[in-house]
Design a protein that fits this description.
Shape: elongated
Strand order of the largest sheet: 2-3-1-4
Number of helices: 5
Mean pLDDT: 81
Distance between the termini: 13 Å
Strand content: 15-25%
Low-confidence stretches: 1-20, 178-193
Number of strands: 4
Length: 193
């Protein structure tokens, strides 16, 4: 996306407080989102490369209004970036699993940093319930998945136990529904007319 069109979309995130040596500012409560903002978010989740014109037409606002709203959503941190939705099987990652972990109390930050380094880690969440962490991974095959669990995960000292739930089939809820376009992805157009 052109920088002049989506200011801040490609820039590195700034840690809360502005960075090293800066006194953190008080947390600003999020602005309420109206139905148009929510519609824009849904459209961009389904097609992050939609043009401003297309977004404006679909939510019934001017291009200038759509542009301003998208930039505000980015500036406010509501939209954190634009990404591709990947078919993991076609990308050579045919084995997927959710892995639950029980970890040593108060070790979340340490464990999270180690989980980020795992090949194929796609999502990490600290959760409540019978386990502490939910991890989604994509690997080329079950042998690689087994090695990841038995060699990498269980070698983390703060991990007390794991449970692996194989994913047999997934449904992408952001895929176009009935009557919506199913055209293949095209070149980025958010900044174009």
């Amino acid at each position: 996306m052109p920088d002049e069109q989506m200011a801040g979309a490609g820039s590195a995130p700034v840690p809360p407080g502005g960075g090293p040596g800066v006194t953190p500012a008080p947390a600003v409560p999020p602005r309420p989102l109206d139905p148009i903002d929510r519609s824009i978010m849904r459209l961009l989740q389904a097609d992050g490369r939609a043009s401003i014109r297309s977004v404006a037409e679909q939510v019934h606002v001017s291009r200038a209004n759509a542009y301003a709203r998208i930039n505000r959503l980015i500036d406010d941190g509501v939209i954190r970036g634009f990404t591709a939705r990947v078919n993991h099987e076609r990308a050579g990652q045919g084995a997927s699993a959710y892995i639950t972990l029980k970890i040593v109390q108060n070790s979340w930050r340490t464990v999270r940093e180690q989980l980020r380094e795992l090949p194929g880690a796609a999502h990490i969440a600290l959760v409540s319930g019978d386990f502490d962490v939910l991890l989604l991974v994509h690997t080329p095959d079950n042998r690689t998945l087994r090695e990841l669990v038995l060699t990498r995960l269980q070698a983390i000292p703060e991990v007390l136990s794991t449970r692996t739930l194989l994913v047999f089939e997934e449904t992408d809820l952001l895929s176009p529904g009935p009557g919506q376009s199913t055209a293949p992805a095209q070149a980025p157009t958010l900044g174009e007319d």
